[in-house]
Amino acid sequence: MYQNTIIKSEQKQIISLNYQNVNQLFPGFTLGDFALLYGSQSVSSISALLCIKAQLPIQLGGIRSNVIFIDGGNCFKLHQISRFARLHYFNPKKILKKIHITRAFTAYQITSLILEQLKGMVNRYKAKVVIISDILSKSSNNKIDDEEINVIYNQVIRYLKRFAKKNNILVIITENGEPKNKKLHELICKKVDTVIRINQSKYEKEFILKKHPRYVLGTANFDFKNMTLNRFM
Q1: Is residue 11 part of a domain?
Q2: Is 6 helix (H, G, I), strand (E, B) or coil?
Q3: Residue 153 CB contacts under 8 Å (≥ 6 apart), including other chains
């Protein structure tokens, strides 16, 4: 287990993961953060839990917020959210009602949703949390050349960084699996405040904090499947 110390006075914590061992390494996300979560397929499960955590009251590690979920890789699963909600004794219908899902099927749709519609959605639903799943899943579209793809995603990532800070919104982007475009992945890592990688072996999962402005970087093992309600809270 990795012991972490905070190198500066910590901002107000808003969404904690509360996995055993992980808390000491990474206490949680804060408003205004722009974060990347990538690695194993467990990333989609963690994203689903974050959709629930965001809705909890502050004393339980949440912020009572609606969630904007832009699904770039068709990975949002209603049954997964419902299963996690029941597992933690929440009403699935109430949880799902506060998650506002928009799907993008091309790089251009992702660009339009973020640059033209995201601010309106945040205001309409009074959301303080935005999750953009599998953001690079459309970057390998053969109909768009590499130079144009780089321009599109460079613009999107720069906008999201400014948007998170200006509007005091938590923005989390994910990549499920290994990076599909290493050049764009490196661009994202440079621009975001926080980079978290999830590794999964046959026997355990690793939570790797690769970049953060305040916390000491490191690795913690965690047991996702056997997480109890007390750990979740």
Answers
A1: no
A2: strand
A3: 107, 135, 136, 139, 184, 187
Q: How much helix, strand and coil, in percent to the nearest 5, is found in the chain?
A: 40, 25, 40
CATH of the domain at 62: 3.40.50.300
Q: What is the pLDDT of residue 18?
A: 78
Query: Which CB contacts under 8 angstroms, 24+ apart, belong to 76-83?
Result: 76/48, 76/101, 76/103, 76/133, 77/44, 77/48, 80/44, 80/45, 80/48, 81/48, 81/51, 81/52
Query: Measuring CA to CA, which residue among 66, 172, 69 is closest to residue 127?
Result: 66
In this structure, the strands spanning 218-222 and 205-211 are antiparallel
Total number of residues shown for the chain: 233
Residue 200's domain comprises: 22-232
CA 122 to chain centre: 16
3-state DSSP call for residue 190? helix
The pLDDT tens digits of the residues spanning 136-162 come to 876 666 567 778 888 889 999 999 999
Checking if the pLDDT of 233 tops 50, the result is no
The answer to the question of residue 38 being in a domain is yes
pLDDT band at 57 (very low <50, low <70, confident <90, very high): confident
